[in-house]
Specification:
With 294 residues, the chain is α/β, with parallel strands linked by helices. Helices cover 44% and strands 10% of the residues. The radius of gyration is 18 Å and the shape is globular. InterPro entries: ACMSD (IPR032465), Amidohydro-rel (IPR006680), Metal_Hydrolase (IPR032466).
Length: 294
């Protein structure tokens, strides 16, 4: 299939972007990624619908594609679904970041004995961003085992990309309620709500208004695929503009059922202006991660 890299480059050049920063891309051990793809292929219970993987390529080609798009910084979002897995994933991610300098060193966690130890180790090893997946992990962000971890990450100013919305299917601990309780205890936590909090867009936008360190990533939001399932409320478009400095581009590359450029076009057709687009696609993340081109 066509990769669409020329379309992404034209988008970037039209906006005068020095590059694109994507805070929600997936790189993980090959055997884990294959299982994730198999889950999508089987229309697993959390999706229940056809979900073709557009960029089903080996790792080096996926990296080449992001660079061809002009993505200058990206992440290696990975997550455990059971105890005893996170520390191993963090070891893999540290090695991946060491051999991939344009990847923001990513780490993950799970509520288990020793989580405070390996999270501290990851921070000391240079982790720049953490991934928490409440839906796949099936855990409560307010689990007492995680309390010291959230405090550590808040103190260190390290962002946490959290899948906490109830899309594509609700989990026992998803939704704005548990996240609101977490933020009440850790108001300085730099939480990035994945997928704009889909489908609870309104409630998660309200949390961002209430807590200055809360941000949202655009992953799959506003695309034709997601608009059919969980349309973004037109009445909330003004809040997107008002929170323009705290919306970050995320895409879910490579696990998306459409070309990469479609996420960018979906943001553009919101009609919030070029300055808003430049901030979302580059400036906001550059400032958050204190990158040289901020």
């Amino acid at each position: 299939m066509e990769t669409g890299s020329d379309d992404v480059v034209r988008f970037r050049e039209r906006l005068g972007l020095p590059g694109i920063i994507d805070v929600h891309t997936h790189f993980m051990p090959e055997q884990v990624l294959r299982k994730v793809w198999a889950y999508f292929d089987a229309a697993g219970p959390l999706t229940g619908l056809e979900w073709p993987i557009t960029y089903r390529y080996e790792e080096e080609r996926r990296l080449d594609l992001l660079r061809a798009f002009g993505v200058t910084r990206f992440t290696a979002m990975l997550y455990p679904h059971k105890p005893g897995m996170a520390r191993w994933l963090n070891g893999w991610a540290a090695d991946f970041a060491a051999r991939t300098p344009d990847c923001l060193h990513t780490a993950t966690l799970f509520p288990e004995e020793g989580v405070d130890v390996y999270v501290k180790e990851a921070v000391e090893a240079g982790a720049r961003v953490f991934k928490s997946h409440l839906q796949v992990g099936g855990y409560d962000a307010n689990d007492p085992l995680l309390d010291a971890v959230w405090g550590l990450l808040a103190e260190a100013g390290i962002p946490v990309v959290m899948h906490c919305g109830s899309g594509p299917a609700p989990g026992k601990f998803t939704g704005p309620g548990p996240v609101g309780r977490l933020l009440a205890r850790h108001p300085r936590l730099r939480l990035i709500v994945a997928h704009m909090g889909m489908p609870e867009y309104t409630e998660f936008l309200a949390l961002a208004e209430a807590y200055p360190e809360v941000r949202l990533d655009t992953t799959m939001a506003f695309t034709d695929f997601s608009e059919r399932l969980s349309p973004f409320p037109a009445a909330e478009r003004g809040r997107l503009a008002d929170l323009g400095d705290r919306i970050l581009l995320g895409t879910d590359f490579p696990n998306i059922p459409y070309p990469y450029v479609h996420q960018l076009e979906a943001l553009e057709r919101l009609g919030l202006g070029e300055a808003w687009l430049r901030a979302v696609c580059h400036g906001n993340a550059a400032a958050l991660f204190e990158l040289p081109d901020a």
